[in-house]
Amino acid sequence: MDAVNNKDDKSSKKAQVKCTDNLNGIKIALIGDGETEPKKENVDTLAQAILDTNFLTFLVDNMCRFEFESRKDIGHIIIYLLRNCHEEVTTYITANDHFIKTLVAGYENQDIA
Hints:
Family: Belongs to the Mo25 family.
Protein name: Calcium-binding protein 39-like protein
Mean pLDDT: 88
Shape: globular
Number of strands: 0
Number of domains: 1
Largest sheet: none
Distance between the termini: 20 Å
GO molecular function, one term: protein serine/threonine kinase activator activity
Order of helices and strands: HHHHHHH
Structural class: mainly alpha
Radius of gyration: 15 Å
InterPro entries: ARM-like (IPR011989), ARM-type_fold (IPR016024), Mo25 (IPR013878)
GO biological process, one term: intracellular signal transduction
Low-confidence stretches: none
């Protein structure tokens, strides 16, 4: 994520594009792209990996570093997980109060609110 911070750097632009592509790929793997439906076993594996690695917390902690489209993808990912992996995500969130505090604090930042 440090490469994303330096906005004037070529490597920063490259890192930003890579982050955008990867987040879009995760969203498509979970939700599909309208033409193809995601495979349930792949969705389950990806969702569990997202929770096991604290990737949701990482995404929320770094939300302000991502471009607008990436922030939208993060929102789609979180909403999908809440709707489809409700018990696991609820357990994750209740065990990780930093996650909710960070989401609420995000409204103070005009760039991401």
